[in-house]
Write a structure and sequence with these properties.
61% of the residues lie in helices and 6% in strands. It is mostly helical. The chain has a seven-stranded mixed β-sheet, sandwiched between helices. The protein starts with 16 loop residues before the first helix and ends in an 11-residue tail after the last helix. 32% of the residues are buried.
């Protein structure tokens, strides 16, 4: 019997190495009846008997066979172990539960470990035979010698001889592991009169058939049984009837496990795993076996329940799929968003579940429950297509509702960011509510995929709509602010360019800065509800500044292309008017060459202002270009009209940095201006000459004045006595004085008028030239 204190049939030994040693040869439960591997059990045995340093010099023997067939009795007799044996006086029942391990005390020549396995085909486990298959496979995988304990009268039988169990474990062994050669020792108990040779022949034939019937890996399809199993046979007498003979023959059998050098030895010379790693190796093998489902074959009733419940579920799904009600439901789902989608789907599912419960009520409860869950999954798979259609309609509906809500909120003056958050929250809440109703109908694992996909698509669509609307709002605001900047700059810039002064570029830069600052402040105020970051706002302000600069640059470029009228205006302002702003009379005191030089320089400065762009802060390159352009154009203005050197020097220059006009364009503009200026100069000189001639002939001789005074005394007195004549004479004198002051006398005035009419223009046309008109010949 077992030396350990076993409490009940399922008790587990929990001894450490010291406890084992104190009680003699340690026996440990390696795997409990529930299939839990005890990691320290094998180590306890190895340490307890002092064989931890055996290395590869040991053997592992296991036994398998039917319950109450005397396995523990056989091991105790052969190896001297003390496994618990069945007490026949208390009835035949399960004695060994789980897997037990011990060292063989009677094998002194070689360290031998023995595994006592729970018997197969026991009434305690009934049809739940997964554990016995797992333990049998474990024995085959770890043992060097596997003893198959069987009764003599079971030879030739199918189940009695354990062939189904052997077939299963051999096949799975090939699948899970890379088996090496194992000694398969058939111990035939309670031998009869049948010769041993006949028994061996039957068992060998059965093993060959079994070998041919199992599924083997491709590389072992043509392998022979002998390559993996060394089959041996031993017959023993009845233990109960011939105990002494039984013990004598088991003693002889023990010798085959002691010395591996003996020809009849059953154990290998060397183990495949060092003994200190045996516990870890066995644990990994057991984990692999437990995780494999090929051994978890159902019992007959379970199998029938599984098949039938599966058939019932499939038939109900097919019946539902082919029903007119379901087809109408699917058609409705494909056409519009159904308000009662979840309730209608739930009604279909409940119909299937009710039918399932009625037809499967007599089958195993666990199987019924499992297959009922599978029925829900199958229904959910059938519901996926209508659900996807409904999710598309729901997405479109929520997107429309969200867009309308957003527009309504914006029209009421609500900020975009706040309105967008509110619409997004409402949309998400509505979707989650609808989705939860749908997920409650069937399997969340099945229906959750389409729902998550639709949720992601809705979020993407909603984000795209918000981004588009946000971009539209920002662009609209930018257009409005841009229009405002255009309004701010248009009139002042046109006015500055109409009569350019030396401060033109400073004034333009100032106007750009003022317009940009005002536009940026207005933009930040308008975009406050969009919750833009400071970087984004700063970027938009930079865009507005560029817009203002481009607007001014466009106006300046346009003015540069029409620089000649502006040069003419600058020339006329200096040439046609004096320092008081009054029109020049071109009298004898007027210095036409000096006035002409000054007017030419004014025109040259105007041209130089519009040659190079100077918007913004001046840098060294721009200042050098401005200075070079001014010097070159002033040289052109001060040179003689027949001197081509100034023009040639200007034409030979490269284009200035940030140039609005090239040197060649400047030369052409100056030539056009100079033609008009020469005409004005010639008219002024002709007028001055006419004044000079008139002045020389304007006064009568002194004797004529004396004669007029004497002879006209009577008329003079008459005028003094008549107020009307006196006023008339005073008026004529005033008019004459004005004419005299304007033209230097009556004759010069008449001469100036004649010259002007002969040239096709009036003496005051120089003032009108400021409007931008020029001589037809040059424009």
């Amino acid at each position: 019997g077992d030396r350990m204190d076993v409490v009940g049939a399922g008790a587990m030994a929990t001894m450490d190495a010291s406890t084992c040693a104190s009680e003699g040869e340690p026996i440990q439960q390696l795997v409990d009846p529930e299939g839990t591997y005890r990691r320290d059990a094998l180590d306890c045995v190895v340490r307890g008997v002092g064989v931890a340093k055996s290395g590869l010099d040991y053997a592992l023997v296991a036994i398998m066979g039917p319950q109450s067939s005397g396995k523990s009795t056989l091991l105790n007799a052969v190896f001297g172990t003390t496994f618990r044996e069945m007490d026949a006086m208390n009835g035949r029942k399960q004695t060994t539960r789980g897997v037990w391990v011990a060292k063989a005390p009677k094998c002194q020549d070689r360290c031998t470990l023995v595994l006592d396995m729970e018997g197969s085909d026991g009434r305690e486990r009934g049809e739940h035979d997964t554990y016995e298959k797992q333990s049998a496979l474990f024995a085959m995988a770890v043992a060097d010698v596997l003893i198959v304990n069987m009764w003599c009268h079971d030879v030739g039988r199918e189940s009695g001889a354990g062939k189904p169990l052997l077939r299963t474990v051999m096949q799975v062994n090939f699948k899970l592991f890379h088996p090496t050669q194992t000694v398969l020792l058939f111990v035939i108990r309670d031998r009869s009169k049948t010769p041993k040779e006949k028994l061996e022949q039957v068992l060998r034939e059965d093993m060959e058939k079994l070998w041919e019937s199992i599924q083997k890996p491709e590389k072992h399809k043509n392998s022979q049984l002998q390559e993996f199993f060394d089959i041996k046979f031993v017959t023993l007498p009845s233990y109960e009837e011939k105990e002494e003979e039984f013990r004598a023959e088991t003693t002889l059998l023990r010798r085959k496990f002691s010395d591996p050098e003996e020809p009849s030895s059953l154990v290998p010379r060397r183990a495949s795993v060092p003994i200190d790693a045996l516990s870890l190796s066995a644990e990994k093998i057991w984990e692999t076996i437990v995780e494999n489902k090929d051994l978890d074959l159902p019992a007959h009733q379970i199998m029938i329940a599984t098949i039938r419940c599966d058939q019932i579920a499939s038939e109900l799904i097919l019946e539902l799929r082919d029903s007119d009600r379901w087809k109408g439901f699917v058609q409705m789902c494909n056409q519009t968003l159904a308000e009662g989608f979840a309730s209608e789907a739930k009604a279909h599912l409940e119909g299937c579940l009710t039918g399932y419960d009625e037809e499967s009520m007599y089958f195993d409860e666990d199987v019924r429950t499992a297959k009922k869950e599978e029925l829900v999954i199958k229904f959910s798979e059938l519901l996926v297509a209508p659900l996807e259609s409904q999710l598309l309609f729901l997405q479109e509906s929520l997107l429309r509702q969200g867009t309308k809500s957003l527009e309504d909120a914006l029209s009421e003056g609500q900020g975009f960011s706040k309105a967008a958050d509110a619409c997004t929250g409402t949309c998400t809440k509505n979707f989650d509510t609808w989705a939860d109703l749908c997920l409650s109908v069937g399997s969340r694992d099945v229906l959750g995929g389409p729902v998550r996909h639709a949720e992601k698509a809705l979020k993407s669509s909603f984000d795209a709509m918000l981004a588009k609307r946000k971009s539209k709002g920002i662009q609209t605001t930018l257009k409005e602010v841009s229009a405002r900047i255009t309004d701010i700059l248009s009139e002042p810039v046109v006015a500055l360019l109409e009569e350019p002064s030396s401060s033109l570029w400073r004034s333009l830069t100032s106007k750009v800065a003022e317009a940009s600052d005002e536009g940026c402040a207005l933009l930040k105020s308008e975009l406050k509800g969009f919750a833009l970051s400071e970087e984004e706002l700063q970027g938009h302000c930079e865009d507005l500044k560029k817009l203002a600069e481009e607007l001014v640059e466009g106006r300046v470029k346009e003015a540069a292309q029409h620089v000649v009228p502006r040069m003419r205006n600058a020339f006329n302002a200096s040439f046609m008017k004096d320092s008081r702003g009054l029109p020049r009379t071109w009298g004898r005191k007027e210095d036409i060459p000096s006035i002409t030089k000054e007017a030419y320089l004014r025109a040259a400065d105007t041209l130089a202002l519009l040659c190079v762009r100077r918007l913004g802060p001046d840098n060294e390159n721009v200042l050098e270009a401005v200075e070079d352009a001014q010097v070159s154009i002033r040289r052109l203005a001060t040179s003689s009209t027949r001197d081509e050197s100034a023009s040639s020097a200007l034409l030979s220059k490269r284009a200035w940095p940030h140039a609005l006009l090239t040197p060649a364009e400047c030369v052409r503009a100056w030539s056009r201006f100079d033609a008009d200026a020469q005409l004005a100069i010639s008219q002024a000189m002709a007028t001055q000459e006419a004044h000079a001639r008139a002045a020389r002939a304007s006064l009568p001789p002194w004797w004529a004045l004396a004669a007029i005074a004497v002879l006209g005394m009577d008329e003079f007195m008459t005028v003094l006595r008549s107020p009307l004549l006196l006023l008339l004479v005073v008026g004529l004198v005033v008019i004459a004085r004005i004419i005299y002051l304007r033209f230097g006398g009556v004759q010069p005035a008449i001469a100036a008028a004649a010259v002007a009419l002969a040239g096709g223009r009036t003496p005051f046309q120089g003032e009108r030239a400021s409007t931008g008109t020029s001589h037809p010949k040059h424009d």
